[in-house]
């Protein structure tokens, strides 16, 4: 039996619901193909770190030999701590905090690390969009935002670009008129907003009122359908880095979406569904390779993964301390949602 820790309540519920579907699809396909009867147990982390630990402990008590989850780094850290004593392997799906795996050889992930996002967007802005003058807006209350901004800034400057303004704000802010006025004086060609969609949408709308030709860029904190409503017309054409977008022409994704539609109808509503599918499938294939159904053998098999082809990219973990060199995509916001712009295979 393997266990999935998913957020079935709270702010992360959309990602949790998709996670359950992704894991179910992977397990059903595996059982049908191998004629095995691997059982999937789901436990609710309810968007809370402490509940993530309790959910993991429950699954371990029930006999899970491997755990999938979670989508947030704080929750994943607690899941990993629950698994510490038994060294039960844990595969995180969307937990991108850089130091998460440090000292935890039983913890793996199928997503990139946050610092790669700033680097990739700087390369895209300078090399693909031809932008030379950029401003940065950082949510100084969020280490995630600070990290993305720092890496965008250093990479953009190394490439030859100029950062003409460095603005800060705090999560929960809704009024950005003063920030917009200061940016207007500097006239950047682009503004990189490294925080979350809650503030990015209103900020883009207010900056756009005085600088309608500005290009807006962000990270995967923008990855929510709500940003189109909060950003309105102003945010159309904006771009951000993320793990997955359904419109990606990547062949493995095309095949995956056909199977997803057949089983559930429609498309995944978040990147958690596809990434959880990949994490679950990777664990199941490692289970096939392991010498026994012990947690230690499964952990060693996962650590030896080379060239696993998932719907979100190829994952190699051997010799990488649980960290894949993971494909990243840039998406463009349009009226009807997110559309693939470019993929970076080795961010």
Describe this protein with a few key phrases.
347 residues, alpha/beta, Rossmann fold, 7-stranded mixed sheet, 5-stranded parallel sheet, 11 helices, 14 strands, 19% strand, elongated, Leu-bd, Peripla_BP_I, signal, Branched-chain amino acid ABC transporter, amino acid-binding protein
What does this structure look like?
The protein has 347 residues and is an alpha/beta fold. 43% of the residues lie in helices and 19% in strands. It folds into two domains: 190 residues, Response regulator (Rossmann fold, 3-Layer(aba) Sandwich); 128 residues, 3-Layer(aba) Sandwich (Rossmann fold). It is built from eleven helices and 14 strands. The strands form three sheets. Strands 7-6-8-9-10-13-14 form a seven-stranded mixed sheet, with helices on both faces. The radius of gyration is 20 Å and the shape is elongated. The model has no long low-confidence stretch (mean pLDDT 96).
How many domains would you count in the coordinates?
Answer: 2
Class derived from helix and strand content: alpha/beta
At the third CATH level, what is the topology name of the largest domain? Rossmann fold
> Can you give the mean pLDDT?
96
How much helix, percentage-wise, in residues? 40-55%
CATH architecture grouping of the largest domain: 3-Layer(aba) Sandwich
Count of strand segments: 14
* Poorly predicted regions: none
Strand order of the largest sheet: 7-6-8-9-10-13-14
Helix and strand element order: EHEHEHEEHEHEHEHEHEHHHEEEE
Number of helical elements: 11
């Amino acid at each position: 039996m393997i266990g999935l820790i998913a957020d079935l309540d709270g702010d992360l519920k959309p990602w949790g619901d998709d996670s359950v579907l992704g894991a179910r699809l992977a397990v059903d396909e595996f059982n049908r193909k191998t004629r095995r009867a691997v059982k999937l147990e789901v436990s609710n982390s309810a968007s809370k770190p402490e509940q993530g630990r309790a959910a993991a402990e429950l699954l371990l008590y029930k006999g899970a030999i491997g755990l999938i989850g979670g989508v947030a780094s704080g929750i994943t850290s607690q899941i990993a701590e629950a698994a510490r004593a038994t060294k039960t392997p844990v595969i995180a799906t969307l937990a991108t905090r850089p130091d998460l795996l440090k000292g935890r050889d039983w913890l793996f992930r199928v997503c990139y690390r946050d610092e790669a996002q700033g680097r990739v967007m700087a390369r895209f802005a300078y090399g693909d969009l031809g932008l030379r003058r950029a401003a940065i807006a950082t949510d100084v209350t969020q280490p995630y935002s600070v990290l993305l901004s720092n890496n965008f800034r250093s990479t953009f400057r190394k490439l030859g670009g100029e950062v003409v303004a460095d603005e800060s704000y705090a999560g929960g802010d809704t009024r950005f008129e003063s920030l917009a006025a200061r940016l207007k004086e500097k006239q950047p060609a682009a503004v990189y907003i490294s925080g979350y969609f809650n503030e990015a949408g209103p900020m883009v709308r207010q900056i756009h009122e005085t600088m309608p030709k500005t290009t807006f860029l962000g990270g995967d904190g923008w990855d929510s359908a709500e940003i189109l409503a909060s950003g309105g017309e102003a945010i159309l054409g904006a771009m951000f880095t993320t793990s997955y977008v359904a419109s990606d022409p990547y062949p493995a994704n095309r095949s995956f979406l056909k199977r997803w539609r057949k089983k559930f109808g429609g498309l995944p509503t978040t990147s958690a569904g596809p990434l959880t599918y990949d994490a679950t499938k990777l664990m199941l294939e490692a289970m096939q390779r392991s010498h026994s159904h012990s947690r230690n053998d499964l952990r060693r098999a996962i650590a030896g993964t080379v060239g696993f082809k998932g719907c979100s990219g190829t994952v190699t973990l051997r010799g990488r301390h649980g960290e894949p060199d993971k494909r990243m995509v840039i998406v463009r916001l349009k009226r009807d949602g997110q559309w693939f712009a470019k993929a970076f295979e080795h961010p």
